[in-house]
Amino acid sequence: QVQLVESGGGLVQAGGSLKLSCAPSGRTFSGRAVGWFRQAPGKEREFVAAITWSGGSTYYANSVKGRFTISRDIAKLTVSLQMNSLTPEDTAVYYCAATLSYYYTITPALRLTEKYDYWGQGTQVTVAS
């Protein structure tokens, strides 16, 4: 069983930056894919970005491409989401998720919530205008 713990959320002004981190306990991300999703009040959970632990291939939602960067830290065994040029529309609870299956190449299918087996508890990101 893998437990995921997110950190780094908070309140930021529009145009600012935040960095989220996701750390696993009980098992590492080795060979798996890790994704970030977000859910705003009254909206469905939506895909933000994904990365394969092996090779570090990435995939982004169009809404965050060029502003957000997902990365992995092999030494710390964590996955991070660097968020720049934040807007109020980025306000949401952000969730880290990991797959049980192995992914050695990135695929657009990783934008689907059903591809993920483990989820964190979420961290709130609020962008003030």
Which stretches are low in confidence, meaning pLDDT under 50 for 5 or more residues running? none
Roughly how much helix do the residues carry, as a percent range? under 10%
Mean pLDDT: 95
Q: Please tally the β strands and state the result.
A: 11
Overall spatial form:
globular
SS strand fraction: over 45%
Write the H/E string, N to C.
EEEEEEEEEEE
Radius of gyration over all CA atoms, rounded: 13 Å
Number of helices: 0
> Could you tell me how far the N terminus lies from the C terminus, measured between alpha carbons in angstroms?
40 Å
Kindly describe this structure:
By secondary structure, this protein is mostly beta strands. The radius of gyration is 13 Å and the shape is globular. The chain is built from no helices and 11 strands.
Topology:
Elements: E1 3-7, E2 10-13, E3 18-25, E4 32-39, E5 46-52, E6 58-60, E7 68-73, E8 78-83, E9 92-102, E10 118-119, E11 123-128
Parallel strand pairs: 2-11
Antiparallel strand pairs: 1-3, 3-8, 4-5, 4-9, 5-6, 7-8, 9-10, 9-11
Task: Write a concise keyword list for the protein shown above.
129 residues; globular; 11 strands; 7-stranded mixed beta sheet; single chain; mainly beta
